[in-house]
Amino acid sequence: MHWQTSRYRIDLARPRVMGIVNVTPDSFSDGGQYLAPAAAVAHAERLVREGADILDIGAESTRPGARSPDTPEELARLRPVLAAALTLGVPVSVDTSNPEVMRAVLDAGADIVNDVRSLTRPGALEAVAAHPAAGLCLMHMRGEPATMQAQVPDYPDVVAEVRDFLRERLAAAQAAGIDEARIVLDPGIGFAKTPAHNLTLLRRQRELLALGRPVLAGWSRKSTLGGLTGRPANERVAASVAAAVLAVHEGARIVRVHDVAPTVDALKLWQAAFGEPGQNDDKEQP
Ligand code: HH2
User: Fold this and answer.
1) Which residues are annotated as catalytic?
2) Model pTM?
């Protein structure tokens, strides 16, 4: 199985690590640390040295209560970091829901759009469809980040809800002309979900593979892990690495993480024990 993106066709025979670069003042675990472009670029370089297969750059926090930047502000944060990241030899994703931002970053050469709102904003499907090879991550969420955790839906069956939602968004993307080879699907851990919902999605994650596309999972430092361990966000590395390995064990092919180095090490063990032979040290080919 492969993930088609603008410059790279990512081979998913080996699980891939997407390293997070948050160019935000207010992200839940590292807000403000990389708002200065030079700090964000240095962080991106470090993640690649640590073995990140993909970089995901975001300029809007989805933390409940975070303020959304307007288009010029979001682009001003993204542009310098994207330009530098595009020289690092790995595919670069941009985490945005804003169709104008999608157009601008795809024109600037971004490889992937990662949208926590699954291209539901007017013009978003068209913005991604206009770039014939760009990759796309569609994620499940109910409502808006600002309020989603205050009014968590009472899902009769959270896995069925997530699967049906992703099936509908996958169909909408294909109907807009986006080839399914470009698309990966994400259960949206922590987005309008209780800890019990998140854990059910991990246990039954394989049910999402019935949709026929690779699964991307983002557990890194999230509050479910804080609740289980009693630790603040910057001390959730061990739990985050465990969650990444479990997600891969249950069929995810891409994990979105803050702590790249320990995740890469842990997945080497998974790969050696459970992966396809001969897939231990390749880099994706352009
Ligand atoms: N989680 C966050 C942001 N973007 N994208 C995908 N596809 N999947 C996720 O699980 C996901 C995501 C939240 O994490 P983070 O970027 O660290 O925080 P913030 O949104 O506060 O910047």
Assistant:
1) 222, 256
2) 0.96
